[in-house]
Amino acid sequence: MRGLLPVGTVALIFGVGSFYTAPSAGPGLFTWINLGGGALALLLAAASALRGRSDASPASRRLLVRSLLWVLVALIVAMGAEQLGRRSGWQLDATAERRYSLAPATRAALEALPAPVEAILFLDRLDTRARSSRLLLQTLAGSGVVTVRESDLDESADQAERFGVVSSNTVVLVRGNRFETVERPTEGSLFEALQHLGRSAERRVYVARGAGEGDLVRSDDVGYSGLAAALQTESYSLHDWVTAAASEVPADADAVLFVAPRRGLRQPVLAALERYLQGGGRLVALLEPGTHTGLEELLERWGFGLADAVVVDPASGPVEGDPAGVNPIVFSYAEHPAVAGLNASRMTFFLRARPVDGVRKPRPEDDLRTLAFASRRSWLAPNVEAVQRGLAPERPEDAEENYWPLLAVGRYPRGDREARIAVFGDSDFASNRYLRAVYNLDLLMNTLHWVTEREPAITLRPKALTVDQFPLTVQDSLSMFYGVGLVVPELCLIAAALLWARRRIG
Amino acid sequence: MSEPQTRGAEVLAEGLSRHFGPHRALRDLDVRIAPGESFGLLGANGAGKTTFIRLVTGYLAASAGRVAVDGFCPIAQAREVHARIGFVAETSRLYPDLRVRGFLRFAGAVHGLAGGGLVDAIEKTLARFQLEDVAGRLIGNLSKGYQQRVSLAQAFLHDPPLLIVDEPTGGLDPLQQEEVRHVLGEAAGARTLLICTHDLGEARALTGRVAVLHRGACVALGATDEVLGRGDPLALFRGQAEEAQ
Amino acid sequence: MRPWLALLRKELAVAFGSPMAWLTLAGVGLVTALIFFDHLRIYNQILFLYATTTMGGFETDTVPTYVNLRDQVFLPVMETLALTLVGLVPLVTMRVFAEERSRGTDELLATTLLTPTQIVAGKFAATYLLVALMLALSFIYPASSVVRAGLGMPHLMVVYLGLFALGIALASIGLVCSAFSTHQLVAAVSAYAVAFVLYDFRWTAQFLPDTVAAWIDPLSLHPRFGSFAEGMVRGGDLLYFAGYVLVGFALARFALIQARVR
Fold first, then answer.
1. Which of A132, C26, C145, C147 is least enclosed by beta carbons within 10 angstroms?
2. Which residues of C touch B79 (CB under 8 A)?
3. pLDDT per residue as tens digits for the range A410-452
4. What ipTM was predicted for this assembly?
C-alpha cells in the first residue's frame, strides 16, 4: 500500500502532462488510464494512511493534525504574503543609473496619455536580455495607465509581422489603432514612444531655411536631424519657412526657429519677422559667433546684446581636442522655468559660443533675462575666425572676467498678446553629435516649451544608460584574479588540509 | 515545570501498545517502575524492549494506553519528561566529527546546563568516566569502549533522575563490559535505572526487578532472582512461561 | 547556552569540521573565479575588436551600449552561480536530517529539551549560514572586480541578496526532502527533482493554456531571482522566497512529528 503514493503520483503527472500535450483530437486512452489510475492509487494510499493513523492514540492523532494544520497555515500565509507584496508594488531600485525608477518626464508622459496603453513584449522565451525589459515594463505598469503582456515571438508571428517586430526583446506600445515599436527598450526610448502616442495638439514651428542654416534633415554628426526628431516627439510639427521667397511669417506659426543662419537675411524677411514679433510672435534663434545675418541687429532692437566674440571659460578643460576653454561647460543657471531642474550636477555645454546678454528692455514692461552662464573666470576672445579654425583664443589685455551668459530670453507684452524670444549663442550644442550629451536636449526643448507657452511640458528627460563599457586593463584583471580570485579557494583548501591532518591525528 | 525528584523518577505504563501497521510491537503492557528502582527489561531481539523505551522517551507515540514519567506524558509534556531522562542508546549513537569535550558541551547544553554549571558538569563527568585523556579527540577515532563511555557520560551530565540504558554492553569486550556495569551499579539507587538487555548475567547484576517481553507481550514480571531463578529462564524468551517455572 | 543555540553550534561544527565542506567551498570559489575570468577575457577581446581603427573605436560610439561589463560579464557569471546553487545545495542539505536518522542520533536529540520546532530551526539556520558563506566566498572576486570597474555597491548587494534568497529557498527544499528521508542519496535526488522542476516553468508555456501558464509561472524560482540580478528588490519576490522558508520549516517539523506517529 505504501507504494501506491509514488505510483499514483507518477501516473497522475503523466496523465496531466499528456492531457495538455494531447493532439487536437483530444486526450486518448493513455491519458485517461493514467489520470484514472493515478487518482485511484492516491485515494487508496490516502485511505490506507488514514487507516494506519487510526492505530494512533488520540494524543498522537492530535499532535499530527496540529502539525499538519501548521503546514497549511504556513502555506496560506506564504501565498497571501506574496500576493500582498506583489500587489503593493513595493520595490527598491539599486541600479547605479536608476534604471527602474521612472524619470519625472516619463511620469508626466504617462499622466498625459489620454487613454490606456498596452505594452506587448515580444520575446524568445529563453532570451535573458528580455528580463530587464520585463522589469521596466512592470515599473511602467505600476502607473496604472499601461498594461503589459508578453508574447512569444514564434507563436505570435502574425502579430509580430503586423507590428514590424523582427527580433526578441522588442516592445510594442499600442493605443487604439496607433502603435509604436521599440527595440531593446530603455526608459528613454519608451518615453519617446509614449510621447508619440500621447501626442496632443501640435504646435507648428516654422524652421527658417535659405540663409545657410543647419540642415534638420541631415543625419550625420553636424546635421540636426536629431533635433527635428526630438521636436516631433514633443508634439511640434516642423515646416519650412523659406526666407529666400517669404515676405510674411505664416499666420499659423506658433514659433519660428533659426538654426545657425550664415548668410544675410533679406530685408523683407527681417521686416516680416519684426511684424510677427510685434504681433506677439515667438522666436528661437541659435546663433554662431562671426555671423552677420541681420538677425543680430533685429535681436539687439529687442534688447539682446550679441557681442561678436567667443566665450572662453578656463574652468572648462579641453573638449574634443579643441583648445582649453573654448567649449564652456555650463553649470550656473538663473531661476527660470526654461532652465528648471538644471544645476551644477545637471550641466550643459556649448561649443565656440558667443555671449548673449540682456542689455536693454525695449519697453519698461518687458522682461529680459539671462539664463545660462559660463564660470566667473570666463572672458571673451575677439579672434572668432581663428578660434573657429581650431586655433587658440587670444586673450586681450583688458579682457573682463565675468559670468558671461550664453542664453537669454525675453517676454514682451504687446497689446493682448505676448512675444517671446530665446537666443542661444551657439548652434553646435544642438547638432546630432551633441544634442543628447548631458542635458543639452533638455535645455533646448524646455526653452522652446517656454517660448511657446507650454510650461507644463517642461521636464528633464530620461537619460540613456551610462554603463561602464571600458575594459579592465590586463594588469587589473590579472591582479584581481591572482589577488582575490585564487586566494579565497586557496585558503579554503588550506583549511581542508589542516582539518584532514588534525583528523588523522585524532 | 516541576522539579525532578531527587531519588529517581517513576515510570508508569498502563495498557501500553504500539502498532506498526499490522505488526504489534507492544501489547497491553502494564508496569510500574518505582522511583529509585533498578528495573530490567529482557527479551529476545524484536521482543519490544526498544519500542517500550522509545515510548517512554517520546521518540515514538503510543497506539493505545498510556505511559508517564512522574505523571508527565512524553508526547504532550515532552519537556518535563526530557528534563528527567538520561538516555544511552543501543549502539553508540554519537557524532564522529565532534570531539569528546565538544560533544559533552553540546549534550549538556541541550539538557539545560549552561555557564559555569555546564563546565563543572563536563569536568566531573570526564573524570568520572576517565575520559580526560581523550577529551580532545574526535569521537570517530575512539575505540568502541571509549565511545560507549562517552555515550554514558552524556547521559549522566545533567544528573537525571531516570537513566534509560539500551543494551549497554553490546559489542564490548569483557573488560569493557565490567567497566560499564560498574558505572551503572554505582548509579543505581541514586536514580531510577531502566536497563534493556538480553544478557541474563547483566540483569542479575544490575537490576532488582525485571519484566520479560516476548513478541510485544509481557510474559513475566517480578523480582529478578525470582523471574530468572526458576526453571529455564530462556523459556521465557521463547514465550514459554510454563516451562520457565 | 540555550539548547537551540547549542544545536546550531553543533551543526556548524559538524559542517565545518569536515574537510569535504572546505573542499566544496574551494571548488565553488575556484569554478566561479575561472568562469568570471574567462568571461572577462572574452569581453576584453570584443572591446579590442571594436576599438580597432577599422571599427572606429570609442570616439565614434561604435560600441553598442549592451556591450558592457555588467551585461556581458557580471550578470552571466551570476546566472551561472545561481544555476550552480541548484546543483550544489542539495549536496549540502542531504545529510542534515537524513544522516541523523540513519546514524540514530535523532533519537538522542529527541530525548533532549529540544522541541521539534527548535531542532528544525537549528538545522535550518546552520544550513542557511553555510549557504551564505558559500555564496560570499564565490561572490568576493566578481564583486571586487566590477566595483573597481564602476558597478555600484548597492546593485552588488542586491545581487548577493538575490543569490542568498535563492540559496535558502533551495536549501529549504533540500531540508524538507532530507527530513522525510533516511537515506542521504534519496534526499539529494528528491531535492534535485523538486528544485529543477521549480526552477523555471517557462518551458511548460508551450504546452499549457495561457491561463494556466500565467498561474504557475510566478511559482518559478529563476525569474524571481532575475529581478535581483537586474538590481531590483521587489517586495513580492522577497516574500516569495520567505515563503519557501516558512513552508519548508513547517513541512520539516511535520516530518519529525510524523515520524513519531508512523
1. C147
2. 113, 115
3. 999 988 899 999 999 999 999 999 998 889 999 999 999 999 9
4. 0.88
